[in-house]
């Protein structure tokens, strides 16, 4: 069987910008996108998605049932590389900014098995309503040379360590978790970070991401957690984890650190 080059797996819960997400990753060279819908209240978000390269699974309680890992096992052998991200996470090239993700995998990372890609924390500059385009509108982000203390762990400071997402070769890993693959198929697995191309171990975090790293990194994962006040209020109403933890709109919006203008993704949007 001839393998496709890149598969992408994502989870969606009422993200109104799901089509923008798909359009972006298809332009970046992804061959097939698998969306796991987590019982979204508004299924009309998929009305304009009509592409043979996109498949939607309608499920419920997907995290507790480990649905993503089950689907990964079904599709893994069809692809050389796999990306597992949430809908608010956009991986982009930076050092070789005109390259697509596919081109970086074919060149810079072709000899490696797993790439640890740190988040870059985006912000919304306290806009009220959902934008027509997240990538074209939300151009502010945190200054990663600064500390951002917060009383709640989910919205904590990322000065010392920050979460990663991974792109990895499916032949090396049997399972996936939210931030990295597991179930090593062999002991000979090469893991590298996407910033300085240094050897790494599998873990949730990248240590001490700074502005110089963002400027010179090969791949970065721009994380649009706070998109607008409207979107944040919808999360508080519909997202199980936000509801169970009793988060407030102030909790979310006080982590909206709009400090640096960064048009990297705006310039790549369709």
Report on the architecture of this protein:
By secondary structure, the chain is α/β, with parallel strands linked by helices. The protein has one domain: Spore Coat Polysaccharide Biosynthesis Protein SpsA, Chain A (Alpha-Beta Complex), CATH 3.90.550. Helices cover 20% and strands 29% of the residues. The strands form 2 sheets. Strands 1, 2, 3, 4, 5, 6, 7, 8, 11, 12, 13 and 14 form a 12-stranded mixed sheet that branches. Strand 9 and strand 10 form a beta hairpin. The longest helix is centred in the N-terminal third of the chain and has 10 residues. It is globular, with a radius of gyration of 18 Å. The model has no long low-confidence stretch (mean pLDDT 95).
List the helices and strands and how they pair.
Layout: E1 4-12, H1 18-27, E2 32-38, E3 54-59, H2 67-75, E4 79-86, E5 89-93, H3 101-106, E6 114-123, H4 134-137, E7 140-141, E8 161-169, E9 173-176, E10 181-184, E11 191-193, E12 205-207, H5 211-216, E13 219-223, H6 229-238, H7 240-244, H8 249-253, E14 260-261
Parallel strand pairs: 1-2, 1-4, 2-3, 6-11, 6-13
Antiparallel strand pairs: 4-8, 5-13, 6-7, 6-8, 7-14, 8-12, 9-10
